[in-house]
Amino acid sequence: MATKESKQRGRPRSFDRETALEQAVRSFWERGYEATSISDLTRAMGIGAPSLYAAFGDKRALFDEVVAEYGRHYGGFLSRAVAEEPTARRGVERGLREAAVEYTLPGRPRGCLVISAALNISPASSEVAASLREKRLSNVREIADAIRADIASGELPPGTDAGALAAFVGAVIQGMSQGARDGAERTELESIAELALRAWPESTREPAR
What we know:
DNA-binding region: 37-56
Protein name: TetR/AcrR family transcriptional regulator
InterPro entries: DNA-bd_HTH_TetR-type_CS, Homeodomain-like_sf, HTH_TetR, Tet_transcr_reg_TetR-rel_C_sf, TetR_C
Keywords: DNA-binding, Transcription, Transcription regulation
Domain HTH tetR-type: 14-74
Strand content: under 5%
Distance between the termini: 77 Å
Number of helices: 11
């Protein structure tokens, strides 16, 4: 005879998983990892805790899925820009301009989840912080690789410090994200992007912009 518990496990889900996941993205994006409780998540997702655990696993597993979902739908624009544009400068310029737009769009949390979700995190959540830090550093490495390719091709001067320049871009992006969370508007972030681009080494092939 089937037990009540086994019958419950066998029931189909009564909620839309993708919709619930989108609400989880917004919750973590707004509050950060540690400040978002299971109660916050179940309330936002419109499901009970048993359904959350059955569909997504524990809070950490859900957060990992949230970060991947965020990357597919909201983040990733800087990496795409650097990969798609013909030079590192063009890629960074496009990425910074897109950041000014993306970080301030109405109807969604401000800034970048990957940058802000692990701020003020405790040692108990150090693995989460390390995972997000690695994602940010991966972006910096991609920029540095593009800069090195431009140095090798003669686009940039041979003395250009690719690592330092890429880290500078990463710092600007993080500052723009925090600025958006503090209330900066798109035009303010665009001004920051313009100033940051003035620090870019002059191309050896094109007139300075």
